[in-house]
Design a protein that fits this description.
Blueprint: H1 3-12, E1 17-20, E2 27-30, E3 33-36, H2 45-53, H3 58-67, E4 69-76, E5 80-89, E6 92-100, H4 107-110, H5 114-121, E7 126-131, H6 138-152, E8 156-161, E9 174-179, H7 187-194, E10 201-204, H8 210-221, E11 225-230, H9 235-244, H10 248-261, E12 262-272, E13 279-287, H11 290-297, H12 304-310, H13 319-328, H14 334-340, H15 344-352, H16 355-362
Parallel strand pairs: 7-11, 7-12, 8-9, 8-10, 10-11
Antiparallel strand pairs: 1-2, 1-6, 2-3, 4-5, 5-6, 12-13
Helix pairs in contact: 5-6, 7-8, 8-10, 9-10, 10-11, 13-15
């Protein structure tokens, strides 16, 4: 099989990823589970290299062989776009292709919390984060938010991505998309100069290091609306990760800075659907208010879950309540719910009570099968 045929198969079978690695046939991830491509033979080192190198240009080949890692986006006409990571394993070339749909879906279609997303999108400035493990739909959520801003506001949006995933056309907004290694050397470098480019909204694909986080905080502090992602599993870990990346003598100042700019954190997790096809999204939501900002400023992040519980009326919710609600709506099985719960006893209590659904209703949460 050629790579184009494998990618077409991935799109047709609604796979989120295609994996190429030596010692196994090409593998598709469908509904979160890995499946060998039917009829494909086990890949040898030369065959794996041939398949992967067929989509690289000369510059990409040179960069990959120098750095041993490569991220880029790939577009195939009349099919789809893909986010690609090429790497070495056991001395052979391997790759992961993430499918990116050409169409940017809206909040309702994705079953995102509409009121929460609209609230964050319409903030004049501040920092809003979408977090979760790899493959949990963070880029899709941010694309929907940026698309809403693009359609509503006459503003200047700059995205910094590695690589560019969803393509945004100019609507009411002027949208510039910069790709790391193509348009800029790094997230930190792009952020160093972005304030001179007259942006209103900045989207940073990932806050990977201290320099990038510091620049994002400064941009939010100077009157810009900043969106970004982190690979964290809940709001407490998100706040702690941002602060802990700095040396101890700076952490007090960073707490004050973060408390002043944070607007919200949405932590996503995709769970296997009880229907046997597709995945359901559970989401923890933290929205900034005076109490939340005080806890961050004073280093009492362990108390944030209490504030989230108390904020159901404005759309806040813990991950365990979100998971319990999916179970109560028969979207996921009991086994999946308990396996993914942060605190099993709390999740069991929510699953058995009628409180969870009420919290979601008051918060305007729309939960369902979206991915």
């Amino acid at each position: 099989m050629e790579i184009a045929e494998l990618l077409r198969m991935a799109v047709e079978r609604e796979a989120s990823d295609l994996h190429i690695a030596v010692g196994r046939p090409p593998v598709l991830r469908i509904d979160g589970k890995l499946q060998n491509v039917e009829g494909a033979q086990v890949l040898t080192a030369p065959e794996s290299r041939r398949l992967i190198y067929s989509v690289l240009n000369d510059l990409q080949k040179q960069r990959f062989e120098e750095q041993r890692e490569l991220d880029f986006s790939l577009s195939i006409s009349n099919l789809s776009r893909f986010r690609v990571n090429v790497h070495f394993q056991r001395g052979s070339v391997a790759a992961a292709f993430r499918t990116i749909t050409n169409r940017i879906r809206g909040f309702e279609e994705l079953h995102l919390p509409v009121k929460v997303c609209e609230r964050l999108a319409r903030r004049p400035n501040g920092l809003a984060l979408c977090t979760g493990p790899t493959g949990m739909g963070k880029s899709t959520t941010l694309a929907a938010i940026i698309d809403m801003i693009n359609g509503e506001r006459e503003c200047h949006i700059i995205t910094i991505e590695d690589p560019i995933e969803y393509l945004h056309t100019h609507k009411k907004a002027l949208v510039e998309q910069r790709e790391v290694n193509e348009d800029t050397f790094s997230f930190a470098t792009a952020l160093k100069y972005v304030l001179r480019q007259d942006p209103d909204v900045i989207m940073v694909g990932e806050m990977r290091d201290q320099e990038t986080i510091a620049a994002a905080l400064t941009a939010a502090e100077t009157g810009h609306l900043v969106f970004s992602t982190l690979h964290t599993v809940d709001s407490v870990q998100t706040v702690d990760r941002i602060i802990d990346v700095f040396p101890p003598h700076q952490q007090g100042q960073v707490r004050i800075q973060l408390a002043g700019v944070i607007e919200g954190v949405m932590c996503q997790k995709l769970l296997p659907s009880a229907m046997g096809k597709g995945r359901e999204m559970a989401m923890e939501i933290l929205l900034a208010n005076d109490a939340v900002r005080a806890l961050i400023r004073e280093g009492k992040t362990h108390q944030l879950p209490t504030q989230i519980e108390a904020g159901g009326a404005v759309g806040m919710q813990t991950m365990d309540r979100s998971i319990a609600e999916l179970f109560k709506r028969r979207r996921i099985t009991r086994e999946v719910a308990l396996l993914n719960a942060h605190k099993i006893e709390d999740c069991k209590r929510y699953m058995m009570s009628g409180a969870a659904e009420g919290e979601f209703t008051r918060g305007g949460m729309a939960v369902g099968r979206a991915y």
